Amino acid sequence: MTTVLKAGGSSVADGTKISRILKQAQGLDDLIVLTVSAQGKTTNRIEKSIESAKNGEAVPEPEEIFQEFESLCIGNRNLTANGIRDSIYAEFRSLQKPTPEKLRQLEDPSYTAKLHLDGERLAAIGVCHIAQCSGLNPLCVDLIGSRFPLAVKGDYHAGRIDLEESRKRAQQVLSSVKHGILILPGYGGLDLDRKGPNRIFRMKTLGRGGSDTAAFGYLYAFQGDRLLILTDVYGILNAAIEGGETVPVLDIEEAKDAASLGAKLPGRRALRGLEKCYEEGGNPEVYIAHSQDFAGPRTRIVKETEEKVPVKLVAGRDVVIYSLEGDIRGLQNVLANSGVDWAAGPLTDDYARVAVSQETDSYAERLITGHRRQDGKNGRRMSKEGNLAFVGAVGSGMYNTQGIVGRAGTALGRSGIGVEYNMDPGKVSLGYIIGRNDTTPALVALHGEFLPP
Question: How many CA atoms are closer than 13 Å to the CA of 379, on its beta-carbon side?
Fold first, then answer.
């Protein structure tokens, strides 16, 4: 039996939280595959350091960039003198006074992808050290070298998992470890370049939500029996308001639509690994659980539920709206492969209105503007609206229940909430674009209409 655990940045932010995860993992299964995100806000500090170096601004000391990891190093000579740590810190110190050659490197996505993944590499080392101190005899596989199991193709900063190749690599790892705990950095993997005379392994990230994407990739690759996505909340709430309760079960379509609306769930692209398991006849258990209480209230994701509930949850998030006119063929594929959470209504070859999360706006804007064709024939135009929110309801029985759309609109109207656009996130949900200041009142109104106490 194999269990995959994914621990997010807040869940591994300090030694106490890590120890609690490891204690709960003991005896959970024959093999534990634990994939970890960069600790705390490390990834944000890495991104800012790269941009500062490019712009000639001050770059912090590595000890500040990786401050959570540094807290684990206090009194731990094995961590302080770790060769990987020394190499990573030296690389970031070189950004403080970048040479012309270093500035050229910073324009190379293969180099910046490697820098982005250094937080995960250090987090894995830190977790492995604490596991060793706990007597667990862990194995940590670093991203450098052919042994790393996750195969990632495509863009350096928004790659996609090659699931079949990853399974082959995972089986090679399993030949040397069948019991105990295997610790792996999340968020990215390796692309093997076979074209040249020498094999070259290049690190690539999986874009936004990449650690969740990696976790589901590992579930498929290691043929796991169970996956726990560990967060700092008790599963998925039916509304992010006072009185919200944990949703016990979501089917995979409900999970995808809820993620688009901002519920703390793995996104559509992340769930591809689970869908692949289902396609091949597998049925692993998947839970969203609290990192400090695995057995507490949690949300299970399943292939299909027998009972089709009209509304299971309501959710919302801050968004930016892009309106595009002209030749935008292929835009849907670009967004789907990027890891950006988005919704569209409508989306055709020559017109689209696209909502993207405020958190990913700068990245999404680069994708959208970079994709638009510039042949000068169709008078392409793009406009952008901010200060908006995307709210809605999710339930697999929604469109078998008469009057759901009318009830939702009436509930919002009674609360004095104006709707800018209708924009359904997917096939088991309905959504509305509203003013950002109306987010909480809208959630309260929808929750009261469909999910009263």
Answer: 0
